[in-house]
Amino acid sequence: MHMFKIKLQILNLLLTIKFIYAIIACRNVSTEVKIIKRVTIKDVAREAGTSISAVSYVLNGSTKKKYSENTVKLIKDAAKKLNYVPNNIARGMRVQKSYSIGIVNFWDIHNHVFVKNLKGIVETANKYKYSVVICPVSNKNVNDYSYIDYYKNRRIDGIVFIAPVKSEYVINEEEHIKRMEAAGVPYVIINTSLDSDKPCYFKYDFFDATYTAAVYLIQRGYKDITYVTPKISEDYPENYERMTGYKIAMEKFGLNFRMIDINDIDKEIMEGFSAVVANKSDTAKKIMDKAIEYGFKIPDDFSIVAANIENYSQFLHVPLTCSQIPIFKIAQRATDILINIINDKTTDDFEKIKCEIVEGKSVK
After folding, report:
1. Percent of residues, the chain, with pLDDT higher than 90
2. Has residue 348 got a pLDDT over 70?
3. C-beta of residue 364 within 8 angstroms of C-beta of residue 337
4. Which long-range contacts (CB under 8 A, 24 or more apart) does 169-177 make?
5. Which residue, among 161, 141, 260, 279, has the nearest Cα to 214 in the 3D structure?
6. What is the phi/psi pair of residue 105, to 5°?
7. For 188-233, what is each residue's pLDDT tens digit?
8. Alpha-carbon distances, residue 352 vs 86, 245, 322, 333 (angstroms)
9. I need a labelling partner for 232 at 20 to 30 A (CA). Which of 7, 47, 91, 327 fits?
10. pLDDT tens digits, one per residue of 270-320
11. Which of 190, 173, 186, 40 is nearest to 100 (CA)?
12. Distance CA 190, CA 161 (A)
């Protein structure tokens, strides 16, 4: 035991000496420290051989002054060579802007609708050199207006407001708009429940989704087209809109319409199917499951088009043909308009964005 303690003391002494030696050695090592200097517009102007104001106008995309193509090229080439990155904080302080837009979202962040919206907003914001901030809002508290503080505190310059589907829960959209306008917040509304011709209001057209699906089948020679849906309820107003779209399409082409509750389908009913418009992809999946159970083949025995698209729609037993609301395009256009509003630019009247068919293999 005594010998063990002696060995331990010797080991500690050796480690101490080694540590002291390392410190001495480090003192004799010449260490080069490089300080990376941020590239400024002055550096770009010097490299390009132009004025600082010319660099500022060109790189900020200003239209107040016009410069020759050669000057613009010199400036852009110099900025690229020096890896110039605009200082948006300083830029924002000069013009009292944050160069950020806020997203107020009432959808689950995992929902593909929110993901498509986010992608469209971010892609368009980046085009204008704006960043995106997701403003926290309580999905359960319809009276949560705390996101307006982001504008008051100059953290954002405007808001993309993504309203919920009514069947999930109802917010007082008019009150939200009233408060944003009172605070002077530039805004656009996606999935509005209001009837408005203003270019900053975008409606998800559930009517057009089923109308487009039915017309797609009619144009392919189908006349006997059944609409399959869960039971229509006042609690799900978008289901009523979808049903009406199908009905109007059939009436327009002089065809009889037939609607069936998904829960009532049995083998005998399915034997009478020629083509089906399902209100949503989850209903179409249930139809496919029943078809497998009863021994039917899709699209050999009957065709299906769903009036929405989900992440799994193309990965079902038979890849599903869908009529989809162009969520991504709506988000892009909404962001375009918001940034125009922020910058006091006039907004042109746009044509309505129609639903689109995404073809799978469920239509013969």
Report:
1. 56
2. no
3. no
4. 169/139, 169/142, 170/142, 171/106, 171/142, 172/142, 172/143, 175/143, 176/145
5. 279
6. -120, 130
7. 999 998 888 888 999 999 999 999 999 999 999 999 999 999 987 6
8. 36, 16, 20, 11
9. 327
10. 999 999 999 999 999 999 999 999 999 999 999 999 999 998 999 999 999
11. 186
12. 6
182 vs 187: CA distance, rounded Å: 12
Whole-model pTM: value is: 0.72
Strand extents, DSSP E, the chain: 100-105, 131-134, 159-162, 187-190, 201-202, 225-229, 258-261, 275-278, 303-306, 321-324, 356-358
Q: Is the CB of residue 47 less than 8 Å from the CB of residue 74?
A: no
Question: Alpha-carbon distance 275 to 265, whole Å?
Answer: 14
Indicate the helix (H) or strand (E) that contains 338.
helix 327-342
Q: How do beta strands 275-278 and 258-261 pair?
A: unpaired
Write the pLDDT tens digit of every residue in 39-61.
787 888 888 888 888 887 787 76
Both ends of the chain: CA-CA distance in Å?
Answer: 89
DSSP 3-state of 324: strand
At 273, which amino acid appears?
F
- Return the SS3 of 303: strand
3-state SS class at 283: helix
Q: Is the peptide bond before 237 cis (omega within 30 degrees of 0)?
A: no
Q: Which amino acid is at 44?
A: V
CA distance 184 to 158: 9
Query: Distance (Å, rounded) from C-alpha 146 to C-alpha 73?
Result: 45
Q: One-letter amino acid identity for 153?
A: N
